[in-house]
Amino acid sequence: MLVDSHCHLNFPELIANMEAIRHSMAEHEVNHALCISVTLGEFPQVLAVAEAHDNIYASVGVHPDYEDEGEIAVDELVRLADHPKVIAIGETGLDYFRLTGDLEWQRDRFRNHIRAAILADKPLIIHTRSAAEDTIRIMREENAQRVGGVMHCFTESIEVAMQAIELGFYISFSGIVTFKNATSLKEVAKQVPLDSILVETDSPYLAPVPFRGKTNQPAYVKYVAEEVARLREIPYEVLAKATTDNFFKLFKQARRCN
Q1: Mean of the pLDDT values across residues 31-41?
Q2: What is the CATH number of domain 2-250?
Q3: Is the model's pTM score more than 0.70?
Q4: Rounded to 5 degrees, what angle do the CA atoms 255, 25, 45 make?
Q5: Burial class of residue 13, CB neighbours in 10 A (0-12, 13-18, 19+)
Q6: Positive or negative torsion for Cα 75, 130, 172, 64
Q7: What sections of 95-204 are H helices per DSSP?
């Protein structure tokens, strides 16, 4: 059994093919998926996907790249998170790679997501790119350890990973770990404690080898898990069980389906 801990099933590339995607998930023994919100405008679609399928869950939040979303109120996030299929707050965080200039609004939004997660008592889905120092600093300042969460699509150093783990966060590896040139990330995947690892697709993006460049889907998380197991020199079944157990330990509101 595997869990895709981060995907975007409501995106056009995937939503139009849900039956085929679910069939492929079953074939690859991917039993659960977490569909991630990136804007509040699209959140109803995310929630509808989760409500329609017992083995799919949802998050609520606004990705740091969406500047035009404006201020995101804490109480609005808490209100939207009050649903049995919403098990996390995010995707939130900091991205200094795609956006430049005065990004204080991004940091303020990140703080509001952390505050909402604490009030809602739900874990955080954190995106960080070219902003690791500020991301960890704000997590500490806002007491993100009270709810924990996951550093999604992790591409940072082992030092950043261990700082996040100390705050109760899991490290999630995506298809990037299968790329030939991702040598430093492969080393991180060898070193992160097994009880702190999740796997994801971030589909429809970042398809793993041997599907690189094609539309990604939750079934392909199996190839991510296989690569992490290979790097760690442990049986695939051990890695699959550990990451699945980690998911349900973190997201306590989620329930396992047969």
Answers
A1: 97
A2: 3.20.20.140
A3: yes
A4: 70
A5: middle
A6: positive
A7: 104-120, 132-141, 158-166, 183-191
